[in-house]
Automatic annotation (TrEMBL):
Signal peptide: none annotated. The chain crosses the membrane at residues 13-32, 39-57, 69-87, 124-145, 192-222. The lineage of its organism: Bacteria, Bacillati, Actinomycetota, Actinomycetes, Kitasatosporales. The keyword GTP-binding does not apply. One of its GO terms (cellular component) is membrane. It comes from Streptomyces sp. gb1(2016). Pfam families: DUF1295 (PF06966). Keywords: Membrane, Transmembrane, Transmembrane helix. This is DUF1295 domain-containing protein. Gene3D superfamilies: 1.20.120.1630.
């Protein structure tokens, strides 16, 4: 590929932003009706799927069709899996304590505060992280990382089976992938977004325009609302200190000996 179409890239940015914010605004209206803001976490994955589908439609007739389909399918499948997983996990529960604490200190109208600080912010992050997907029109069949297609092993099924067994109530999940990393789902998300970056990275200009996306996702997974937040929540659970001492915090490795 010779050169990077900055004009096309700039053209697609507002359309993708509109798709991400559209998903979040619809979710906001549903949340107001239900009186529960935790459903925004379900919309997080759906936002990425929406941006991928819009980007695929805008890139029709350009780029390499095989890679365009690959990136779109990977993103949509990842987004839908995440939405279903979070939806099932939160079914039957009330408001998320994070959003309760946030809205408790809201200045003025809590609903408008939630719209600004939760929904619009998450929509903007979806758009920013999706930058590699927005370059589908520029993705060419070049021999740059052709084998590095994003693959992720999801431990969701093992988790549901573990929780379904009454004997495991109150115990820490430390089986399968959970014995190699305390956060296999987050590590899987990390692999997906770095993998997508490598798939579309057929030109230095593409890399320069989209590198921020996997970097931001990596920060969110390790230092933001992912690993760090969950570990603070789990810190007081019986047996978690021992599990943390023997198990990697993020990148998988064999468990340490006691």
């Amino acid at each position: 590929m010779s050169g990077f179409g900055w004009a096309e890239f700039a053209r697609d940015l507002p359309v993708a932003l509109g798709a991400a914010l559209g998903v979040m605004l619809v979710t906001f209206l549903i949340a107001l009706r239900k009186g529960v803001h935790r459903i925004v976490d379900v919309a997080w994955g759906l936002g990425f799927a929406a941006v991928a589908l819009v980007s695929y439609a805008m890139s029709t007739g350009d780029g390499d069709d095989g890679r365009r389909v690959l990136v779109t399918v990977l993103t949509v499948v990842w987004g839908l899996r995440l939405a279903v997983h979070i939806g099932r996990r939160g079914r039957g529960h009330g408001e998320d304590p994070r959003y309760e604490a946030l809205l408790a200190k809201a200045p003025g109208n809590p609903a408008l505060y939630a719209l600004r600080t939760v929904y619009l912010l998450q929509g903007a992050l979806v758009w920013l992280i999706s930058l590699p997907v927005l370059t589908l029109w520029a993705v060419m069949a070049a021999p740059v990382f052709p084998e590095l297609w994003a693959a992720v092993s999801s431990p969701d099924i093992d988790t549901f089976r573990f929780k379904a067994d009454p004997a495991n109530k109150g115990r820490i999940m430390d089986r399968g992938l959970w014995s190699w990393t305390r956060h296999p789902n987050y590590f899987g998300d990390f692999c997906v977004w770095w993998g997508l970056f490598l798939v579309v990275c057929t030109d230095p200009a593409v890399a320069a325009a989209t590198l921020v996306s996997p970097l931001v996702m990596s920060f969110l997974l390790t230092r933001g609302s992912g690993k760090a937040l969950l570990e603070r929540h789990m810190a007081g659970r019986p047996g978690y200190a021992e599990y943390r001492a023997r198990t990697s915090g993020f990148f998988p490795r064999p468990p340490r000996r006691s």
